[in-house]
């Protein structure tokens, strides 16, 4: 499961479809409607939110907004609520940079045309639900992935 902290516009078609599917699953987990993924580390930031189900709904609505911008039609009734507002969730600059590198590695293999010509931002744009603060990679991030070194610059 990957619930990207990055803005949905950074995702390719497959990434957008995957985060929609995984976000819907996360909503079911948070609602207690499934047995799997209950302890998944990426759910921690949603569980710690004052209103976890509203937070995942707001997250998914932003994903659906991006899908609509691209001409796709995601079924918002599957979100379970029309609530689009939730208090922001903090995300660190280190987490955003890590996710940008992780996504770039995925795109270089499955969609190099999407990766080509993208300007490198010092701090990538976050998903609308998240508010950026300085800091390292999140402690809930899978240890092996979090240790990926940043790309070398000449």
SSE-based structural type? mainly alpha
List unreliable stretches of 5+ residues: none
Number of strands: 2
Oligomer: single chain
**From N to C, what is the helix and strand string?**
HHHEHHEH
What count of helical segments does DSSP give? 6
How can the largest sheet be summarized? Answer: 2 strands, parallel
Radius of gyration: 15 Å
Features:
154 residues, mainly alpha
Tell me about this structure.
It is a single chain. The chain is 43% helix and 5% strand. Strands 1-2 form a two-stranded parallel sheet. With 154 residues, the chain is mainly α. The chain has helices at residues 13-30, 44-47, 52-69, 93-110, 112-115, 143-146; strands spanning 89-92, 130-133. The mean pLDDT is 88. Helix 1 (13-30) packs antiparallel against helix 3 (52-69). It is built from 6 helices and 2 strands, in the order H-H-H-E-H-H-E-H. The protein is globular and about 40 Å long. The N and C termini lie far apart (34 Å).
Question: What would a concise description of this structure say?
Answer:
The chain has six helices and two strands, in the order αααβααβα. With 154 residues, the protein is mainly alpha-helical.
Indicate the topology:
Elements: H1 13-30, H2 44-47, H3 52-69, E1 89-92, H4 93-110, H5 112-115, E2 130-133, H6 143-146
Parallel strand pairs: 1-2
Helix pairs in contact: 1-3
């Amino acid at each position: 499961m990957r619930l990207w902290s990055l803005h949905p516009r950074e995702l390719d078609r497959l990434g957008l479809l995957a985060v929609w599917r995984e976000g819907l699953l996360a909503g079911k987990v948070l609602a207690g409607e499934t047995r799997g993924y209950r302890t998944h580390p990426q759910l921690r930031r949603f569980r710690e939110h004052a209103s976890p189900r509203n937070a995942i709904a707001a997250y998914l609505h932003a994903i659906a907004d991006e899908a609509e911008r691209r001409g796709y039609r995601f079924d918002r009734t599957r979100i379970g609520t029309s609530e689009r507002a939730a208090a922001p969730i903090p995300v660190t600059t280190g987490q955003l940079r890590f996710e940008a590198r992780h996504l770039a590695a995925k795109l270089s293999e499955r969609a190099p045309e999407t990766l080509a010509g993208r300007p490198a931002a010092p701090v990538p744009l976050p998903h609308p639900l998240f508010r950026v603060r300085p800091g390292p990679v999140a402690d809930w991030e899978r240890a092996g992935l979090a240790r990926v070194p940043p790309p070398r610059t000449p």
